[in-house]
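Problem 12. The chain below contains 169 residues. Write out its predicted structure in token notation.
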Amino acid sequence: MDRGAAPEPVTERFREAFRRYPTGVALICAAGPEGPVGLTASSVASVSLAPPALSFSVMGTRSARLLLEAPSFVVHLLGRKHVDLARAFAQTGGARFVPEQGWRTLPSGEPILPSALAALRATPLHLVPVGDATLVVASVVEVFHGPDDGALIHHARAFATSSPLPEET
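Solution.
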């Protein structure tokens, strides 16, 4: 840390701190009133095993508002082959839910991506407004496993893949 540098606002330093922290990448999708909705998220976390629960946060975008109104949604944990899909869902106007992406529909109505590392169907337990975001805590009601393709990671404003480190000897 450069203690001689001019102080920056905490929000900018906070943003920069999390750019340095790699996270997994997820697509969170739901059945909206006018069709499927979804967004890319890097804030997904496991909260509890018993009962199974997860959390994520969203900002006030149109897709986020529709997700927050949905009675259930699917959190897709993405693998390395999903980088184009993650980019499409991260930008306004990106291709979403097109046949080439391999989407299916669950009997409960949500879109599901069978090629995701895992897909977790969940129902909201708590919606907590925090500043300009909403923290969602959700109960996981179904878990689907897809092919293990290696992790997709978001780090320093870019997508990356992981390679395991050699075992310690």
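Discussion. The helical segments are 10-19, 62-69, 83-90. Students who got a different answer should revisit the alignment rule from Section 12.3.
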